[in-house]
Specification:
Length: 382
């Protein structure tokens, strides 16, 4: 029998996240979007950490909250309803390659960099390069073994937390001629000599999160920082993205679309005659379509999260959910902006901001074209 009732523990996390999001994040969201974008909201990150809302999926023995994927999605939806950029930053600490392929020794060594109770750091997933976006096989960052060390060289771009991270999961190739089979993953602390961070990107959306570039010039790390085995980098990256597409795109998209719907309802109730509004179909029918999109996207997120938690192969469903939820978020935000008109450019009804935020959902963690490619191949293989 299928049931949609949350467990008491899940309900507690959902309520906790909702209260924090509306009390502490929502009042700051408009200002973060309109600010110079240079200052990172570290005070808010530290508050999230103290409440157990930063390292959601990290095991409790390493300082995280130990949440499963579904419960993490419940939390992220609430955070995203207040500010999608902050929610996205949280997701990058909530599920990381170190959880997938790290040895117990590596986890014990590196999780304190991101899970310290007083001074938490941020994690970064460093795959994209100037000439290697959707085509990860074109990556040119290199690694070579020298004795008991690896030496890394290359440049990474459009990296979330790229200018802030305490710990990078860096993907580099040991053999360019081997293509994806040469890609290997490494754990690189942010203070490693030879790692230089560039300026962050002044993005159209998610302006409360930072996206930047960094370069590696003869960055030397111990051989023990190898994540997984040599040549397993692409596999680790895809396993990570399979989950991030659900929490970083799916759950964030649901929260964003929900916020757009709620703000649109608030606007109509504030500006329309309460007795006449229910019969104004030009205004109310879009609300029905918006709510339907929210409900459908949420169900896809929950189903895929359940599959991941229960070790059911979810590659196809992850791709489907990623593009559906992000497309739905943009459509809902655009409908809301149309309903609110010029009022949608204000802090009270920030639909214009949500449109900008929603557009990014279609691009990161693999573009929606790549997600459709992944899903369609899975469908044909089945």
């Amino acid at each position: 029998m299928i049931a949609f009732e949350l467990t008491p523990e899940q309900a507690r996390w959902q309520e906790k996240a909702r209260d924090f999001a509306q009390e502490r994040i929502a009042p700051l969201s408009w200002g973060l979007d309109r600010s110079s974008h240079e200052e990172f909201p570290w005070a808010l990150i530290r508050e999230l950490n103290r409440e157990g809302l930063l390292n959601l999926g990290v095991p409790t023995e390493y300082g995280g909250s130990g949440l499963d994927v579904l419960t993490s999605c419940l939390v992220i939806e609430e955070l995203a309803a207040a500010d999608p950029g902050i929610a996205f930053t949280v997701t990058l600490n909530s599920y990381v390659p170190l959880m997938i392929a790290g040895t117990p020794e590596q986890q014990e060594k590196f999780f304190p960099l991101t899970c310290d109770k007083e001074t938490p750091g941020l994690a970064s997933f460093a795959l994209t390069e100037p000439n290697a976006g959707s085509d990860a096989g074109a990556a040119s960052a290199t690694a070579r073994r020298e004795g008991d060390q690896y030496v890394l060289n290359g440049e990474k771009c459009f990296i979330s937390n790229g200018d802030q991270a305490a710990l990078y999961a860096v993907f580099a190739t040991l053999d360019r001629s081997a293509g994806l089979k040469g890609m290997t993953a490494f754990l690189v602390p942010g203070d490693s000599p030879g790692l230089s961070r560039g300026k962050f990107e002044d993005k159209m959306g998610f302006r409360s999160s930072h996206t930047g570039v960094f370069a590696m010039q003869d960055v030397r790390i111990p051989a023990s920082n190898l994540l997984g085995k040599e040549g397993q980098g692409f596999k680790i990256a895809m396993q990570t993205l399979e989950v991030l597409r659900i929490i970083s795109c799916g759950a964030v998209g649901v929260g964003l679309a929900r916020a757009a719907t709620e703000k649109s309802v608030e606007f109509l109730k504030d500006h329309c005659h309460p007795k006449k509004l229910p019969n104004q179909q030009a205004l109310t029918f879009p609300l029905a379509d918006m709510q339907a999109a929210v409900e459908a996207a949420r169900l896809m997120v929950w189903k895929t999260a359940w599959m991941l938690d229960n070790k059911v192969p979810a590659g196809t469903m992850s791709g489907l959910t990623k593009f559906f939820a992000s497309d739905a978020a943009l459509e809902v935000a655009q409908r809301g902006l149309q309903l609110t008109g010029p009022h949608g450019r204000t802090g009270r009804y920030p639909l214009e901001k949500l449109v900008r935020d929603a557009k990014l959902l279609q691009i990161y963690e693999g573009t929606n074209q790549i997600s459709r490619l992944v899903a369609s191949r899975g469908i044909l293989a089945g």
